[in-house]
Design brief:
The chain is an alpha/beta fold. It is 17% helix and 28% strand. The chain is built from 3 helices and 14 strands. Strands 7-10-12-13-14 form a 5-stranded mixed beta sheet, with no helix packed on it. The chain has a 3-stranded mixed beta sheet with strand order 9-8-11, with no helix packed on it. Strands 1-2 form a two-stranded antiparallel sheet.
Amino acid sequence: MSTGEVQTDSIIQQALDDGKIVYVPRIMRDPPRSVTANQSTGSYMNLFRLYSPLDFETGLIPGVWGIREPNLLVGNTPRATVFDEESMGLDLILMPGMAFDRELARLGHGKGYYDNFIARYLSTAENIGWPKPTLIGLSLEEQVLDTSVIPMAEHDVRLDALVTRASCYGIDSEMTTPL
C-alpha cells in the first residue's frame, strides 16, 4: 500500500472477525453507461464484498498504484458488490485522502473516485431506501490542515468525521482522546 495513508488492514481484519459485512474498493475499467467514469482514465471505483478473514488474506491482488484490490471472483462465483440486489447498503465509508481540514473537507488524489462513488451510492440509496452512510476520513496527523484551507467544489463530499491516531474531529466538536 502507498505510504502517506493510514493502513487499514487491522480495521478490516477486526471488522471481519466481529462478523461485520465489509466491502473494499477496486478501480474498474469500461464503466456501464450509468456510471460516471474518470474522464482521463475511463475508470471508476466500486466496492466489493470480503467474505471472511481468509478471503481478506487470499482474495486481494495488487491493483492500481500497488494497492491491494479484491479479485472479481471468489472461486468461480462473481464477488458481490455493494450495488447487488442482496446488499443491505453501507453504514460507514472510511476514506483516505492527501489532506483534510478541520471543517471536514477532504482533498483526494485528484481522480474523483470516492466523490463519484459516493454520488452514485447516495442516488441508489435514496431510490432503495437505504440510509446515508457515515463518512469518516482516516488521516495521519500531519495531513490535517487548518480550517477552510481545502477548497470544496460542488461535487466534493464533506466528511461526517475525521480520525487520526491522536484526535477525532466531528461536525459539532473535537475530541482529543487518543484512539
